[in-house]
Write a structure and sequence with these properties.
The chain has about 260 residues and is of the alpha/beta class. It has eight helices and six strands. Strand 1, helix 2 and strand 2 form a beta-alpha-beta unit. Helix 5 runs antiparallel to helix 6.
């Protein structure tokens, strides 16, 4: 008959077995994907190789006032512009309110006579018609969703004092992995590329600067992303399943009235 002492010995040997076995097990941590230090994306889907071999030298100075929420978006395009242009030609300033006290240098740029704001509206001039009284322009852009960009514009009175320009002849956007407000909407990168190409009469700039965007969309679609139609297209074709704003509802009602008048006449 086994004694209590024998039982304790067997128990210790049993426990020691598992302790020793655990020491033999190699703890393998999940392999982390190698990341690009420039675009902060995995190397397998890095768009940096598609940037211009030599950053583009341009006369235009671009100042992007970026909404804080835009910084966390993985598919933002402003960094492509920043790295595609020569150093010192693209400045990204993050914030909502750009007061004189906190942003004196920004306000100095905004007050410069050669500063223009790329922002559509009834009081915006077609950038094609902008008189070239200056050797170069400071091109100010608001980066974020349309609602965020509008909030930045409304929160900074100085922006309403700037000469506003817009792009009337928009090319079709390559940014097919993100829902745009209208069929003529462009990403921040594309808007800047088109604007610079017009200001400097260098149409080739558009293709050169937007190659990283082509690559980004291709990468995303290869991993299952689908091509997005604009909000405008979805509304017109009954594909929009979210509540419509009062402005859009009023517009649709007016369109029905106009259509009825045309039919009756």
């Amino acid at each position: 008959m086994a004694s209590a002492e024998d039982g304790q010995t067997d128990l210790l040997e049993f426990c020691n077995y598992f302790v020793e076995a655990e020491d033999l097990v190699e703890v393998v941590e999940p392999e982390r994907r190698s990341m690009c230090s420039r675009c902060s994306r995995p190397l397998s889907v890095c768009w940096c190789p598609y940037l211009p071999k030599d950053p583009l030298e341009v006369k235009t100075n671009v100042y992007i006032l970026q909404h804080p929420y835009e910084t966390s978006r993985r598919l933002k395009t402003a960094p492509m512009l920043y790295h595609g242009l020569a150093p010192g030609k693209c400045h990204i300033i993050v914030g909502k309110r750009f007061s004189e006290q906190r942003y004196p240098q920004v306000n100095e740029i905004l007050r410069a006579p050669n500063t223009i704001l790329l922002y559509p509206g009834v009081d915006a001039m077609d950038i094609q018609d902008l008189p070239h009284h200056y050797h170069s322009f400071n091109l100010v852009m608001l980066d974020g969703t349309w609602a965020q960009a509008k909030n930045i514009y409304c929160a900074n009175n100085i922006l309403s004092c700037l000469k506003k320009v817009q792009i009337n002849d928009n090319p079709v956007s390559k940014y097919v992995i993100r829902t745009q407000p209208t069929d003529s909407s462009l990403s921040t990168l594309e808007s800047a590329a088109v604007a610079i190409s017009i200001l400097e009469n260098r149409p080739e700039i558009i293709e050169t600067l937007t190659k990283p965007l082509d690559a980004l969309c291709k990468f995303q679609m290869n991993f299952g992303a689908v091509q997005h139609q604009s909000k405008e297209y979805k509304i017109e074709n009954g594909l929009w399943n979210k509540p419509l704003s009062k402005k859009i509802l009023k517009k649709k009602e007016q369109e029905k009235i106009n259509c009825t008048h045309q039919t009756n006449s």
